[in-house]
Every structure is written in C-alpha cells, then in structure tokens.
Design brief:
Blueprint: E1 5-6, H1 7-14, H2 18-26, E2 34-35, E3 42-44, H3 49-60, H4 65-73, H5 77-109, E4 119-123, E5 126-136, H6 140-154, E6 165-168, H7 170-174, E7 177-184, E8 196-200, E9 203-211, H8 217-231, E10 233-234, E11 239-245, E12 257-265
Antiparallel strand pairs: 1-3, 2-3, 4-9, 5-7, 5-8, 6-7, 6-11, 9-12, 10-12, 11-12
Helix pairs in contact: 4-5
Length: 270
C-alpha cells in the first residue's frame, strides 16, 4: 500500500504543478515524504501542504529559489521577516520603476499635448550654499534627499534668495555616473559639513517647466532637447533644474513645478 499523497493529489491541494514539484524536489526545496524504491513514485505528507503553500506565495512574488530555501530553513522568526521584508522592498522599487515607465509612455502617446513653452534666459553669476558629489544614476534620489536635508539644516537661519536647484553633468545621463550639485540660494552661504559656498557662473539657458511628479520628467527633457536642436545652439554644460514647488512645499504631486534649463549659446541678447 502507498504511504501519503501522490504527486498529482499533492499538486491539486498545493496549487503547484507536478512539473514544479519535481523541480523543487531536484533542487532540495521541497522533498517528498517518501519515494517508492521500485516505481520511483513520489509521495507527500498532508503536513507538507502549508510549506508548499508558503513556497507558492513566495514564488508568486518572484522570490528566487535560493531565497525561498533560506526562509524555509531559517528557524528565527525575525530573520525570516527580515528576508521577506527585503524582497518586498525590492518589489516596491521595481513597481515604482514600472509606474514611472507607464507614466512616461502615456505622456508620449497623448495626442493632445500642448506646444512646449520655452523661454531663453540669461542667468547671472551667483553664490549659493551647495553640496556636490559624483553619483551613480540609480543612487540619485537618495543622494539628493540627503544633500537637501544637510542644506536645509545648514541654512535654517539664512535669508532665502530663491528656490532650491540642482545641476547635473552630462556624464550622469550618458555614462550613468557624473557630478551632481544641489544648492540653495541664500544670503551669506555657510560652511558646515558637506555644505559650502559655491559661485555658479553666468549662463544662457533654454528653459521650460515640467508639471507634476518626476515619473515622466524624461519626456519633458526630450521635448526641450528637441526644441533646442531646432531653435538654438546647444553647448556642453550641466543641465539645470530649479524646484519651484516640490514635496517639501506641498505633498500634492499635481502642484509640483520643476524648471529645466538647457545650456545654449546666443549671439544676441535680443
């Protein structure tokens, strides 16, 4: 007489296919309770159903088999929770990227996009409180948040002379790593930690405003770049962003306004 559930029966109860159960057996992830030495048939115990269901849920969340195995063999609840939390955090990051890509694609496909409003502007030289560094593209958001926190702390008692801004070297976009500058225009810029006074040189910019969250700001970048190609002479220089209104001003993303400045060369100021 057989002992336990056949692989087909166990597949029905666990919602794992027979093929998957065989693969999990070969990988040592979920071994049968017994294997008939004569026929090679696999048999499972009813007590294995909860384990199979846990594996099924984790695999639905695209957790790699190696991580699933680590969770199953870990007896400490806190360690298991940390492993699962780490995977969920990676899923959330990937979901954010997917949402950003969807937002950009929808923006690109909209047939009723208004004509881009671009202004040519001469920005005079000025001294600001700044934090600079060489940053990888995928670390940009975290770096900027830390830099702005340091800036806000350092200039808390100084008179604000304008909205915060950033400058981004071309290499950040072309090579995925480049020099980044976050700054606040204030009176008497201080020196504190990474914060230091910095004089920004005068520059000529083609400027437009991106409305809303930054999920599709690359679309506005693309349109501004196309406008510059058609109407002006682009020069090699960092892209300028000025944060007219952002999450530090209002949590409602529809109110955010980011001014993008593309360096250009003008023969005349007219």
């Amino acid at each position: 007489m057989r002992s336990g559930l056949s692989i087909g029966e166990f597949a029905q109860l666990s919602h794992l296919s027979v093929r998957t159960l065989r693969r999990y057996h070969e990988a040592g992830l979920l071994e049968p309770a017994s294997v008939d030495p004569a026929s090679g048939y696999r048999y499972y115990a009813a007590e294995q159903i909860p384990t199979a269901q846990v594996i099924h849920r984790l695999r639905e969340l695209d957790m790699p088999l190696a991580e699933v195995s680590r969770i199953l063999v870990t007896e400490d609840p806190e360690t298991r929770a940390a492993l699962i939390a780490g995977h969920l955090k990676r899923l959330e990051t990937e979901l954010d990227r997917t949402r950003a890509a969807v937002a950009s694609l929808r923006q690109l496909l909209r047939p009723d996009v208004e004509q881009l409003d671009v202004q040519l502007r001469t920005v005079p030289a000025r001294t600001v409180a700044a934090v600079s560094g060489v940053v990888d593209m995928d670390e940009m958001l975290g770096w900027y948040d830390d830099a702005m926190y340091e800036l806000d702390t350092a200039v808390a008692g100084n008179q604000r002379l304008g909205p915060p801004g950033g400058r981004y070297a071309n290499e950040l976009f072309t090579a995925g790593r480049g020099t980044v500058l976050a700054y606040r225009p204030v009176a008497d810029p201080p020196t504190a930690g990474r914060v230091a006074p910095l004089t920004l040189p005068a520059t000529e910019l083609a400027v437009t405003v991106h409305h809303g969250a930054h999920d599709d700001i690359d679309v506005t970048y693309g349109r501004l770049g196309a406008w510059v190609v058609d109407h002006a002479l682009a020069v090699d220089g960092p892209i300028h962003e000025t944060y007219l209104r952002g999450p530090r001003d209002d949590p409602a993303v529809e109110s955010w306004r980011t001014e993008i400045g593309w360096p250009i060369f003008r023969l005349s100021q007219a």
